[in-house]
Automatic annotation (TrEMBL):
A molecular function GO annotation: FAD binding
Biological process (GO), any one: nucleobase-containing compound metabolic process
PANTHER family: CRYPTOCHROME, CRYPTOCHROME CIRCADIAN CLOCK 5 ISOFORM X1
Name this polypeptide is given: (6-4)DNA photolyase
Record's GO cellular component terms: cytoplasm; nucleus
Family statement drawn from the similarity comment of this UniProt entry: Belongs to the DNA photolyase class-1 family.
Keyword Nucleotide-binding carried by entry: yes
InterPro entries per UniProt: Crypto/Photolyase_FAD-like_sf, Crypto/Photolyase_N_sf, Cryptochr/Photolyase_FAD-bd, Cryptochrome/DNA_photolyase_1, DNA_photolyase_N, Rossmann-like_a/b/a_fold
Length: 577
């Protein structure tokens, strides 16, 4: 390879210009840089048989969100005198073709832990190696390298959050590549006829946009993520009240949590320090020191990259060392982050930032376990998953999916999921519990599939991890603790405003009945123009009976798992059905 060469940057999830080590490496010493995104039929091919518009794996909201993120990425490239090249087809075939066509000698892409990408990337790497193409694939979608955590934990992933924190909190992490904000890029060469065009719309991909109000209010793209963050941070009351795991799942005008998840999914907006910079306390010494150093780039470079921390640490050391004794310790990544947060939280941010970091570490936790657990996304062959004889009742599953369970809280949650592609964490808890161990006793994999398709933050590791958790199949085992589909939502929203918004058929139901409309006398139902069983379904199960039965069956399954030490067969499960 000569000193100057052609590079291809293959975008998948990290759809951002800034704080992107793969892109930075691709740009370095390259004569031409081809930034590429491949529209993969595996995720994007329209599926007319799917239960809602979209492909078999992704609903239309998810697809639209991705395309919006691509438009934003392309706009960022245009500002740097380049373009995003959007190609279509099976990624391996497409890449092989263009690696040759453009005479590429350096291929860069972000490391991905999803099994689909692990398999694809192996193929791509092996092709590149035979073709003499250099591959650079750094870990930048997560703060930690899951493989490194697993190795430090003796070869197995930590299976509790606490044990994860313990490993992650150890100092002496290998440093991640330096990451800077790029101010210019090598030009793209000659990509060929018609290859540089505006990013396709959903219609161009073969989907029909309907006028139906099914659109998520969350727009894709790094710029939008940053705009949302600024707006949130300007809301002092919201900032002051941010609390997890509490928080009102029925708040929809201003969600109780950050709604960072869709952006973290595709952009990995490592956002914590943008929180700090926009905080009400931004005139504080530390915030201002941080801002002084990062300057306006914090707005565009909200990274927690090692580079930023290292330089920040050095700067603090040189200026105010006596005030920051902890900085003398050998700290990297989490350790540094954690200590910084403690300091900040004492003097500046109460516990907000710490709480957010702790939330983000759940993401890291699930990524690590998912990466280190074969068959993580299924019950069979998954060594950390309890074997449970779930039922398979398609009618019940469809009633849950289509917001027709007759329990307004559950149904309204599912309408929000379908329309917005997002719902509050506790709303996710409620519907997941209801489908599985709470009321319906249906397989968590069925619920996982629906979430995977409809969530705009749909994420393989996190989604599977949380379904395992909520169904008491792994991580969490207190199956006697069931969310009531009636009283849980009422606690937050006694008037039922959330239900009235997402289920307008119940908008005139008096608040006494809004969570249990089947108990409303006929005259009230008539007055509310909502006859139960006609305009809105009767409950598909009796919560009281169903939840007791679920507890009993889970108790039995747990006994069996204990007796057979996890080696439960299909035959054993059949006997419990
Ligand atoms: P905030 O509370 O503001 O938290 C900030 C960030 O911390 C989130 O964006 C997320 O990256 C991380 N985080 C918070 N809680 C969790 C958690 N329990 N697990 C992992 N990371 C967390 N989240 C996804 O991003 N993708 C999914 O596919 C997904 N599927 C889920 C399925 C079920 C059944 C459940 C119960 C939860 C699921 N979650 C998923 C986790 C969580 O509900 C969302 O991350 C969160 O609600 C997103 O909103 P937020 O960004 O406002 O969260």
């Amino acid at each position: 390879m000569g000193s100057r060469s052609n590079a291809l940057m293959w975008f998948r999830k990290g759809l951002r210009i800034h704080d992107n080590p793969a892109l930075e490496y691709a740009a370095k010493n390259s004569e031409h840089l081809y930034p590429v995104f491949v529209i993969d039929p595996h995720y994007m091919e329209p599926d007319p048989a799917a239960f809602s518009p979209g492909s078999s794996r992704a609903g239309l909201n998810r697809i639209r969100f991705l395309l919006e993120s691509l438009v934003d990425l392309d706009a960022s490239f245009k500002k740097l005198g380049s373009r995003l090249i959007v190609l279509k087809g099976e990624p391996f075939q497409v890449l092989m073709h263009y690696l040759k066509e453009w005479d590429i000698s350096k291929l860069c892409f972000e490391f991905d832990t999803d099994p689909y990408y692990l398999a694809l990337d192996d193929k791509v790497k092996s092709y590149a190696s035979t073709a003499g193409i250099e591959v650079f694939s750094p870990v930048s979608h997560t703060l930690f390298n899951p493989a490194e955590i697993i190795q430090k934990n003796g070869g197995r992933p930590p299976l509790t959050y606490q044990s994860f924190i313990k490993v992650a909190g150890q100092p002496s992490w290998s440093s991640t590549p330096l990451s800077i904000s790029l101010s210019c890029l090598p030009p793209i060469g000659n990509p060929g006829h018609d290859l540089v065009a505006e990013v396709a719309s959903v219609n161009d991909l073969g989907y029909e946009e309907t006028e139906e109000d099914e659109r998520t209010p969350f727009k894709g793209g790094e710029s939008e993520a940053l705009r949302r963050l600024k707006e949130s941070m300007a809301n002092k009351e919201w900032v002051a009240n941010f609390e997890k795991p509490k928080g009102d799942p029925s708040a929809f005008l201003k969600p109780a949590t950050t709604v960072l998840s869709p952006y973290l999914k595709v952009i990995q907006l490592k956002s914590l320090f943008s929180f700090i910079s926009f905080m009400k306390y931004s005139d504080d010494l530390i915030s201002s020191l941080f801002l002084d150093y990062i300057g306006s780039s914090v707005v565009f470079h909200p990274g927690i990259s090692t580079c930023v921390f290292r330089k920040f640490k050095e700067m603090l050391k040189s200026i105010h060392l006596h005030q920051f004794p902890f900085l003398d310790r050998s700290m990297r990544q989490f350790h540094m982050l954690f200590q910084m947060t403690l300091l900040l939280s004492d003097t500046v941010l109460n516990w907000l930032v710490l709480k957010l970091i702790l939330q983000l570490l759940w993401r890291e936790f699930f990524y690590t376990v998912a990466f280190g657990t074969p068959n993580f996304d299924r019950m069979q062959g998954n060594r950390i998953c309890k074997q449970i004889p779930w039922d398979n009742n398609n009618d019940l599953i469809a009633s849950w999916r289509d917001s027709k369970t007759g329990f307004p809280w559950i149904d309204a949650n599912m309408v929000q999921l379908r329309k917005w592609g997002w719902m509050h964490h506790l709303a996710r808890h409620c519907v997941a519990c209801f489908l599985t161990r709470g009321d319906m006793f249906q397989h968590w994999e069925k619920g996982r599939d629906v979430f995977e398709r409809l969530l705009i933050d749909s994420d393989w590791a996190i989604n599977n991890g949380n379904w395992l958790w909520l169904s008491c199949s792994s991580f969490f085992y207190q199956y006697n603790r069931i969310y009531s589909p009636i009283s849980f939502g009422k606690k937050y929203d006694p008037n039922g405003n959330y239900i009235r918004h997402f289920l307008p058929v119940l908008k005139d139901m008096p608040k006494e009945y809004i969570y249990e409309p089947w108990t409303a006398p006929p005259s009230i139902q008539r007055k509310a123009k909502c006859i139960i069983g006609v305009d809105y379904p009767k409950p598909v199960v009796s919560h009281e009976t169903a939840s007791k039965e679920c507890r009993r069956r889970l108790g039995e399954a747990y006994e069996l798992n204990k007796k057979l030490n996890g080696a439960v067969t299909d035959e054993d499960l059949k006997k419990l059905r």
